[in-house]
Amino acid sequence: MSHRWQKTLLNAASTIKQALEIIDSEAMRVAVVVNQDGHLQGMVTDGDIRRGLLKDLTLQDPVALVMNTSPVTALVGTHKDSLVKLMEKKEILSIPLLDASGCVVGLETLHSALKKPQYPHPIFIMAGGFGTRLRPLTDNCPKPMLNIGDKPILEILIRSFVKAGFSNFYISTHYMPEKIHEYFGNGSNFGIKITYVYEEKPLGTGGALGLLPDSLPKDLPLIMINGDVLTTVNFERLLNFHIEQDADATMCVREYDYQIPYGVINGEGNKITSMIEKPVQRYFINAGIYVLSPKVIQSVPKNYKLDIPTLLEQHMLEREKVLMFPIHEYWLDIGRMDDFKRAQVDINNLGLVK
Fold it and tell me: What is the DSSP letter of 301?
């Protein structure tokens, strides 16, 4: 989304000349008409003005006479891929982004949406697990290298990050590391850089952080993710949330519902006070995706067995800046055989592979 979109705004009483000046001076090539409360009233392009002038309107006439009062819009937060598809389908070059009340809060252009951002922030993928619950599939193959569709889980995950603009990868290995090394090499065939760290013995979900080399950027947060996760999470939005909140650590969480299959009885002594038939309990569960700031990474000793919850609990006591980021996008932890089978069905509809 362009950061200069506010410069495209004007009101319905503005002149056609004023709209033309905005269109000529701003890269978005459009003027956005709003009322005093910021609600969208219309859009104006160079073509709209030319058609108006051909109908004998003058540059001093109000822009309301030429604006498109039913422009294509989208809700703020809509994924860029969806915006690109919509603009290409409608053959338009820009879309105003609205909040739930109809106020204009941004403007996405086709040029901006197609321009892939580049992030120097490192990605750390945990790919050392044994995958015992997926045996016999993992007897001769590390779990992240199992195919979902026609590509290994790890490749699908890496390509998701590459698509979002990340290129600096670190991969933690332990079980059959040679299978991963042989397939990905140094990452050059994928247009990225891959650095491997090797756990001589399993160090828990967080211990591998202590093995990261000196080449790791010292001043940038790191995105850490389990190597068996299939997801469409917006990594750009996750990273921006972490930075904007000045967080020490951010954990992605997923809402999980558990329905008790019986009627639950509450009481005092032998007196029943309430009865709830098959209540649903809702929890947030750890999604295996984190953003960690340098101070958190640097606090992990080398070759020290440590789980992520323990690490985060240590930092929770310091600044109370360990935050959670609820995810509503597709997410699947491929830990069991039924998860693996489900992923084979889901993959074709996720837009993660081509």
Answer: P
Burial of residue 170 (CB within 10 Å: 0-12, 13-18, 19+) is buried
Confidence of residue 114 (pLDDT cuts 50, 70, 90): low
- Reading the block at residue 23, the tokens are 């269109």
Encode pLDDT of 140-151 as tens digits.
899 999 999 889
Strand order across the 193-198 sheet: 193-198, 168-173, 123-126, 222-226, 280-292, 249-259, 322-326
Contact 117, 107 (CB under 8 A): no
Nearest CA to 122 out of 151, 158, 153 is that of: 158
Residue pair 6/29 in contact by the 8 Å Cβ criterion: no
d(CA 40, CA 105) in angstroms, rounded, equals 10
Q: Where along the chain do the CATH 3.10.580.10 domains lie?
A: 5-114
- In angstroms, the first-to-last Cα distance of the chain is 25
Phi, psi of 321 (to 5 degrees): -120, 30
Q: What is the pLDDT of residues 212-255, one digit of tens each?
A: 998 899 899 999 999 999 998 889 889 989 998 999 999 999 88
Task: Tokens for 335, please give them.
Answer: 């830990």
CA dist 26 and 16 (Å) reads 15
CATH of 5-114, one of 3.90.740.10, 3.40.50.920, 3.50.50.60, 3.10.580.10: 3.10.580.10
Per residue, the 3-state secondary structure of 105-143, as one string, reads EEEEEHHHHHCCCCECCCEEEECCCCCHHHCCCCCCCCH
Domain span(s) for CATH 3.90.550.10 in the chain: 123-349
> Count of alpha carbons within 13 Å of 127, Cβ hemisphere only?
32
Topology of domain 123-349 in CATH is Spore Coat Polysaccharide Biosynthesis Protein SpsA; Chain A (3.90.550)
**Cβ atoms within 10 Å, residue 248:** 23
CB atoms within 10 A of CB 287: 23
Q: Taking CA 303 as the corner, what is the angle to CA 247 and CA 295, rounded to the nearest 5 degrees? A: 20
